[in-house]
Predict the structure.
Amino acid sequence: MAVSVAAHVDGGRLWRRLMDLARFGATEKGGVHRLALSDEEIAARAELVRWGLAIGLEPATDPAANLFLRLRGREPDLPPLLVGSHIDSQPTGGKFDGAYGVIAALECAEAILGAGQRPRRSLEVVAWMNEEGSRFAPGMMGSAVFAGVRRMADIEPVRDRAGMSVRDALERVRAAEPDLPLRPLSFPAAGFLEAHIEQGVTLERTGMTIGVVTSIQGKRTFRVTVEGAESHAGTSRRAERRDALASAVDVVKALQAAIWDEADTVRFTIGQFTVSPNAPSVVPGRVEFSIDLRHDEATTVRALGDIIPEVCARARGPCEVSVRELLSDEPIAFPKTLRDRLAAAAGRLGFTHCELPSPAGHDSRYLSRHCPTAMLFIPCKDGISHNEAESISPADAEAGVRVLTEVAFELADADAVPGSTGGMTRL
Ligand code: HGY
Ligand code: MN
Ligand code: MN
């Protein structure tokens, strides 16, 4: 009789850990401020390590500060199955974006042990470094270097707004956890599973408990710098000014006119906007702003991203404009073989389920280039996310972990994991 490890998932333990982890960087409005490589995240990592050690998992990290908790399999030399997400948050983030997937993975490991099982392959609970990209841009740095999409040399020089580099921040984290074994960067993996909140309203509106994710839309991010000249607010005439803010406003309006589409399918966001010297009586000499452009068609992301430099140049007025692209990711699709396993497990366990795309980005994007990868979603209230009011139900949280655990145990015990990186990952 097939072992149902899902029966050993403990929803109460899962919820307590979610609430405990949310204490690290807790905000007054009930969210979290736990930026990548911050003191809050260092403290949260230590708690995860404590939880892992308490149930016999083996903690480790790598030069990119990805965090691993290994449930050693019967055949530990086989490529392990990875299960996880991220614990860094947006500045005014919610308790569950990312954290749900890491705590779900920990609960999955504990349920497998609770069922008295030890799968063939090791199962690694993973918290990827800097998924959100709000302190250090672009995001998904940890999963990108693990999957070979970026090099350490690409991420180490990146600085936050206080001027600290990723290199220095990584050294601070390393110094805070000197006893954590350090592994080389990357290793073969049999597969990766990520549970995440939907961050949209589809599941909630259709009454579905489990979302099997089909794809992640394409994404390009840019940094635009508008250079003018600082001058006196009282003495400089408008005709002589090189007002970087006035030009930046013209550039933003021109970009919106060129990129926003009638059907409202293009996701174009300017989330960060810095004015210098940001003094009331100084005409701004410099403006920097971010662009986050997304669409589920590769051709559209390519075409719209390609016109950005020219649109900026045309609207710059008396200022200079420079555009730097930070990342360019095509849409990705998850393998049907793994999606079918998630759907079958949800069905066996009696949960309503459907397939849906992910407009949000996830570490699974890069892991899907490294090993067969799949994602499942659970509903989040009103689709609210990247917001302190983010909320999920304990019942949905538990349902997601039951499905995750069933499939993770299947794959960790399988001869080979079918999937997207060109077929099977053999023993
Ligand atoms: O931006 C994203 O899509 C992810 O939530 N960081
Ligand atoms: Mn996330
Ligand atoms: Mn996020």
Notes: Residues 422-427 have pLDDT under 50 and may be disordered. The longest strand covers residues 218-227.
